[in-house]
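Honest question from a wet-lab person: if I give you the sequences of every part of a complex, can you actually get the arrangement of the whole thing, not just the pieces? Trying it with mine:
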Amino acid sequence: MAEVELKDIRKSFGAVDVIKGVSLDIKSGEFMVFVGPSGCGKSTLLRLIAGLEDITSGTLEFDHQVVNGLSPSKRGIAMVFQSYALYPHMNVFDNMAFGMQLAKSSKDQIKKRVEAAAELLQITPYLDRLPKQLSGGQRQRVAIGRAIVRDPKVFLFDEPLSNLDAALRVATRLEIAKLHHSMNNVTMVYVTHDQVEAMTLADRICVLRDGLIEQVGTPLELYEHPQSLFVAGFIGSPKMNLLNGAFADKFRATTIGIRSEHIEIKDKDGVWSGPVLHAEMLGSDSYIYVDVGSEEPMIVRQNGTTNRQLGDVVQLAPIGDAVHRFDANGQPMAH
Amino acid sequence: MAWAYTKKTAFYLLVIVIVVESVFPFYYAILTSFKSGTSLFEVNYWPTMISWDNYAAVFQNGSFPQNIWNSVVISTLTVALALLFAVTAAYALSRVRFRGRGLLLLTILSVSMFPQIAVLAGLFEVIRTFGLFNTIWGLIFSYTIFTLPFTVWVLTTFMRDLPLEIEEAAIVDGATPWVIITRVFMPLMWPALVTTGLLAFIAAWNEFLFALTFTSSNSTRTVPVAIALLSGASQFEIPWGTIMAASVIVTVPLIVLVLIFQKKIVSGLTAGGVKG
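Yes, you can. This is the full assembly:
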């Protein structure tokens, strides 16, 4: 359990600035997710916290202690890597025990801690197997187990689910969420490019873009009150409908955004209208793509199934005042 | 059908030609080593007599056992030293970012291009200055120099292919570079270590020019020189029988080593990515 404070952190590789001044306060016991498009610096930021890269300028504090100069093992962190990064020649037990062995812990204590972690992750039957004899999901559990055994103050995840298939990803996501609840308030920092993972796991999300923080907030804050056009477009699936030009002028804004569930289909007098291009029926709900004349079709969510046929012209209108208005700089405008 | 048969026959004929071409000299050496007296000069392709006289003669020749021992010690120590330096150098060259790394690698490679004879005189001076002349350390020193470029280069290439994340996981676990090398990387590099170590051993075992130049007494010579200097009863007699017996004796350890490590060598050549 540790509070992690980033104060104006910068990182340059030669002439390239990757992190351009990030200040962030991660509360003790919090599950913080870094999310952003590829190349935004989220992984670099995590590696700076881990100590695998040197910080160019700025200070990094764990519980008000500056840790800039400390090696990863001295910082009390543990990290789960995207490719699991298990030691191929060691069995599961040794993989998990390696850190404690290097720290010269007693044999009994190592055994106790490894077995407790294996129990928690249900990998006890595999303790004497080699990594290559395990499936992807089991390997990732071992990697998480190795991190747990270190008993870290800060738990770091670098896209831990991206090597798993879709079904396993959802299951492991749940495991990680349960893990966070069950471990006494350990601080977790999780990097992903998948905003669904971010939304489902995070206490707070930090959206990064080009080495700068775009917005920090709870998942719902980001969803309901995006502080920039970028966040509005990035968070949420399907994407928020973004309209500009004449469509936005009507609302006295440069760009407007509206979520698919905030649009209703009317019999007449819609704000927008157009033919149905495509309809996705997911059973519980349906997404209708309507060509209202904007660059991209407008996506409308309907509960249950829909009987709209392709080519049907439908009238659409926003529900209530759910329209997000943005100015020319991509900043939100007051209602 | 007939064509397929011909192709098959041609293929195996070619295989036989290659095998005979590479094995025949050694086979003829074994054959000769078992002959004695004037039968040495009869051309036979099958064993006509089995006589151990030549082998006995080799071992009675005062310094030969000592020469074998010298060869074993020199080759083993050369391999051990070369691997120690090469593994640590390979770690630095493949994993530590520093200015001039590419240039250094190319320099190391270019060193291995010098012919032995070109550096012989200079190396002789160095060895004399260090007081290593006519000691086995002089040979270990020079063999290590000549083995290192190849060993470093191969191990660097191999180590560069090891996943970076495994190393980072070890760093997070609190491993120092030395622990990473010995407990994480070396177990993954066994095939490469065995292959390069074996090649270094063979090179040191067979080396002739340095061994001839840097030693001057029978007790410090290695086997290849000792064989070349084997002399007969008179200066007009070349003792072919003993020479062949000695040659067979020095070849056998290499064959045994290759057979022992054969599996590792094969897996070293075919080992692909070491995915965690």
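Two things worth pointing out. Residues 271-276 of chain B have pLDDT under 50 and may be disordered. The interface with chain A takes residues 163, 165-166, 168-175, 179, 184, 187-188, 274-276 of chain B (CB under 8 Å).
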